[in-house]
Amino acid sequence: MVKHVAEYEMEKRIRDALLLDLYGALLTERQNSLLECFLCEDLTITEIAGQFAISPQAASDIVKRAQAALEGYERKLRHYEKLQAGTKLLDRLEAMSYGSEALEIIEKLRDTL
Questions:
Q1: Residue-number span of the structural domain to which 93 is assigned
Q2: What is the model's pLDDT at position 97?
Q3: Residues 73, 29: one domain?
Q4: Residues of the chain with pLDDT under 70
């Protein structure tokens, strides 16, 4: 199934917001603030620029650098990846009765988280 552009962009925005939640403390205060406005408050780059008294180009650059930094942290630390893997294992566990397969999944979950 082919994803529409809007669906892909929404998934990316949600992922980026989760990465901000996981790694935001590692960004500069300014990067964190601007990216939070962009992702969580759904402000446009122009609105952010006005709020922070900077040019739209500067706001765009800061947001892009902050997003790149979050991706770099995720590549190195993989907390988001592990969280997603843990969630999938928990979903499988919920859908099954407890038995040897459940014990195996629980063990994998412990290793993942």
A1: 78-113
A2: 66
A3: yes
A4: 1-3, 97, 113
Whether 97 and 56 share a structural domain:
no
Same structural domain, 55 and 25: yes
- The answer for residues whose C-beta is within 8 angstroms of residue 42's C-beta and 6 or more apart is none
Q: Residue 2: what pLDDT?
A: 64
How many CB atoms sit inside 10 A of residue 97's CB?
6
User: Which CATH number is 33's domain given?
Assistant: 1.10.10.10
Q: Widest CA span of the chain, in angstroms?
A: 60
Q: Round to whole Å and give the CA distance between 84 and 40.
A: 20
The total domain count for the chain is 2
Burial class of residue 61 in the structure, from the number of CB atoms within 10 Å of its CB (0-12 exposed, 13-18 middle, 19+ buried): middle
Question: Which residues neighbour 13 within 8 Å (Cβ) at sequence distance 6 or greater?
Answer: 39
Could you tell me the pTM of the whole model?
Answer: 0.78
CA distance 99 to 84: 23
